[in-house]
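dumping these here so i dont lose them again. two proteins, back to back, each one seq then structure tokens. dont judge the mess
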Amino acid sequence: MKIKTADLIGPPLNWAVAKCELQHLQNNGDRVKEWVLEQHAQGLHKPDYSEDWMLMGPIIQREEISLNRDNETSYSWAAWTPAPLRDESEAFGYGNLPLIAACRCCVESILGDEVEVPDCLIESNDFTGKSKIEILRSFGYEVTKVDAKFKSYIVEDSEAFSIITETEDEAIDEAYQFLMDEVDPDLGYIFPSF
């Protein structure tokens, strides 16, 4: 399935960064074992670049990806880099977390603004059986008790979105509804009905 790079998240995003890494190795004359390429083509080779600085940090440095807080879009982080492989002057990536922005920027600079992702990865976005809080955390949201005296709770996703409520259940319900309104239905996410 073709997905816009700006919409990649979770396993499809990690898979696309892995594809960039494999392409980088091959372009530099490094031999990549055939089984790694086969596993990647089947959607099996997808290290967790979007959540692990140890994996993504060296790529950010090598690709000269710059990260900055973003106040101009609905996202909290912006990333940009030169894109010499695509004959573009720059590539950009945006995300609620710095690593997501950096991953999207890396993918855009090497693979372009759309990526063909194995269907099996899209199907892995099935959240059936998960609680609202587990789903929110999958998308980078956190629920925090702010003030024990006034029993107030806040839900945040790196400053792009925040709500304050009196109960934890209200915070989770409001954030979940916001998420449902924002998620693109074409991305293939499957959510439980509560």
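---- next one ----
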Amino acid sequence: AKNGKNVLMHLILIGSLAFVTTKAYAASTIVRLSEPKSPATSTFDLVFVAMDTEDRDMQAECEVKKPGSSSFSPFGPVISIPSGKSGDSEICPVDASVLDSEGTYTFKVKVTPENGSSIDSNEVTVEYDSEGPDKPKYIEKEKVNDCVNKIKVKTADDGETSSVQVFADDDKEVDIDDSHRIETESMGPNETFEFEHIVSGDDCDKDWYYAVVAFDDAGNASNPRAETVTTYTEGETKTEEETGEEEVGAIPVEGGAGLTGGETGTAEGEAGEGQEEGKTEETSEEGSVLGEQIEEVSGSKSVFKSPWFWVGLVGLGIIIFSVSKKSKKAQR
């Protein structure tokens, strides 16, 4: 009988603990913050869900620990979650006022139920990278034949470039979009890549112009760099060419990242290997970049630079003067 009483007491104690545990769990508040995409290249939304098993009104605060900081601080307005909305998705907008520098950001959400204690969500980390790599150092074209051009690209020594995209157009305004992209190559900073652009049929009769854009690991794009071309005219006189670049605004790439640049305005170009400094390139409307512009210098013009031309010209003047003088004496 004594053993029976002990068993009964144990059962009552276990039942009481189970009841207390159930009541404690039922009164709890839970908040879960979803993992955003990282790295982020622009503003974004943090999505979270808060639940209260007693369906009480709740207040939620979004908090951030910025790069270089050791503590969290609230941002944005306090979010009210009324009774009956427990379990609904809520949003913390992360805008430019929060993302004020590049680096690693840590976020969490603090939820306080009515007449209850505050509960913190899990923490999530996002790497913010909004700046694109430097423009590729150069893109050069060598005509192999009417249907083949050899293209050579060299990236900037910027520590950021991870890939490049090359675009071709039969118009000097090279459109930067998927329909004009002819090559994508994974390559790092200060590297060189060569390939052949091969066309056929009527395309062999066209003049082709090229531009290249660099991308970093986050998908940020550089400003486009137009090709540099070395050509020669009659008399082996080197042509003068303008191939710097112009800063452009955001250029959308279909199916890819936006090309982010500065304000419109001509910037001093960087010369490729063996090219002259101080050349300028033009960018026209958003989404296109002007190819090379060549000022033809013919071989006939270069003759004026020869000293023999001037010696001959002086000699001819002397002969004409002498003949004229003898003619006047004969008349007398």
